[in-house]
Amino acid sequence: MASIQKFEDLFCWQKARELANFIFYVTNLPTFKDPDLKRQIRRAAISPMSNIAEGFDRGTQAEFVDALFIGKGETGEVRSQLYISYDQKYIDTETLNRGLGLTDECSRLIQ
Questions:
Q1: Residue 42 phi/psi, 5° resolution?
Q2: What is the predicted pLDDT for the residue at 68?
């Protein structure tokens, strides 16, 4: 079994990266019309992968666990913002469900 040497080896970081890229794709769609929500959801989507990386590289278990809790919370923020994006008709049902699936998977992996 391979050991984890860097944060890029962590499956939770890889999935958080997938979520961030998905959010950037979605917020670049012409139907996504709210620039404030766009900025907010992008910041929230970047946070999980950033916190996982920062916590891992700090080198202590306690700091890594703290960073994971922050990243998990940001994943919930993205999930909530996906709902408002759907309610405002910036995204369709298929996009909402894909995003909810990614946030759920990220949250479970970080936990």
A1: -65, -45
A2: 93
Residue with tokens 């049902």: 93
Packed helices 11-27 and 35-58: angle between N→C axes, nearest 10 degrees: 160
What secondary structure letter does DSSP report for 92? Answer: -
Residue whose C-alpha is closest to residue 27's, from 91, 102, 96: 91
Report pTM.
Answer: 0.92
Position 15, amino acid: K
What's the Rg (C-alpha) of the chain? 14
Percent helix / strand / coil, the chain, rounded to 5: 80, 0, 20
Cα 75 from Cα 49, distance rounded (Å): 10
Q: What is the DSSP letter of 8?
A: G
The pLDDT of residue 59: 81
User: What pLDDT is attached to residue 4?
Assistant: 85
DSSP-derived secondary structure letter, 65: H
Q: For residue 20, give the H/E element and its range.
A: helix 11-27
